[in-house]
């Protein structure tokens, strides 16, 4: 080395932390072959996985009769929903894509992934289907892309509109799907006995979430109330419902609601929705209570000392913190709710699961359980994955605000 | 600065007569009498568990007293919720543990009550919020969250938050006890400035330098009672009670 003398810098420079970088081989070595028994396990599992996958793939590509899915795709998606009104279901999906595109552009963290996703979406969706569905899916993809592009362009101005859009989305969907009273016209009434398939499953879930959420929060607050009667009623409700399986609640809703509300005819779907809401609310209340208990007393005292009344204190200080603390649990609960809606088969509704059973009863498709249930599982799996991925994003987002 | 004697009786802003409080069977306050004039700075000190916090919290009804009467700014404290909320609007409180709202930014912490209780516009509240943040010396922290601030900064935000409601009375419950030593001064400086601006203050603290500098009257609490009270010169120079003497010698020797 040369003889240049280096003087110490006045202050140690701040350096970025060292980043770990692996080559492919390095990663393999570290994660799969670090010791001899790890290597052995890797090899054994590798062989097992390859064997299983091979036979599964072989079955899926050569033996499976997927025409049971393609021939009944409409049934799986919307059940008996009239063909003339199918555009309304599509309109809901298009709006959803638009809102997601907008939201991703406004609040999303990874804008590059957003650009790639929404850029590729129209093409990806369009190759999934053919005929009318292809056109519709193309519109869905384009709507998402437009939403994303718009939000990149005017993200500040569109924020309010997007929030408003989400707020009115749910009532709008209900309006579009059910239609209005008049018998004909573009928004003619579609009675709920025609709702089915994935459409019904999603509606049951969304209605369950949207209504059980406020009800559950109220029950959780009521359980903490200083009024003994309110508290007792909430505790009784929560404990009774939690002590009973969902099927029972669904049956009770079918049988009892007409008794409680004589003279009013409530259709079966609405009764099932009521059952799901009442059931879910009790669990939600317990989960929210967990979040409430995690709030230190000092938060209540600070809020009170500032002159906030009980409602303002709860809405502005306590609930935001309590709910934020239980988001992962609530999302888990909503995912469970989504899957539990399949129990409405028992009370005779044709949700995704109900349609699967109906399809399997068709003489042409007898004995194709594997294909049908795999497909149904795939649909459930995709939606559950999306929900949990969203909740992880949301959590990361909220934690970053700390 | 002993102003107590020069005040008119109608200058009284807090009147406590024979205030008692029980926690279950435990008699925590045993007949507290205190009168506080507008602009007076009161320092309350005494051993742990002597009822200082309990007392100061009865003034804004975070704790309910069970006997005697408390009149704050002409309003008698009863079960009447509207009266309680009125009194809470007139009294700011600063806690030992800061109790900032962790989910809100510093600015939102400060403007929340003015907007939702006083009904100010957001712009108006933020303008005043910014003035207050300048007053406590941390205007550059407005958009941060409490968790990103040091203890001393958090406590100064808490003071700003209480002041934002433009209270007539400020209650402090050991505001520097949870702070690292190097941060105590920055909080005390804000409180001294506040005292000199003429704010009525009730301060539970063992910072005797602060008491000596700005207190008008000091109260020594022990076992739920006021053992001795008087201006700082008297309490420090010539305490009457043996218990006061002993306690002072203990905390001043630290
Ligand atoms: N919520 C409570 N329930 C029961 N006892 C309490 C409660 N708060 C305070 N105490 C008791 O009352 C006494 C006075 O407490 P406190 O006013 O906090 O004292 P200080 O603030 O002077 O340390 C203590 O003995 C304490 O244990
Ligand atoms: Mg205390």
UniProtKB/TrEMBL annotation, chain A:
Pfam families: BPD_transp_1 (PF00528). It comes from the Bacteria. Keywords: Cell membrane, Membrane, Transmembrane, Transmembrane helix, Transport. One of its GO terms (cellular component) is ATP-binding cassette (ABC) transporter complex. Residues 198-391 form the ABC transmembrane type-1 domain. GO terms for biological process: amino acid transport. This is Amino acid ABC transporter permease. It comes from Candidatus Thermofonsia Clade 3 bacterium.
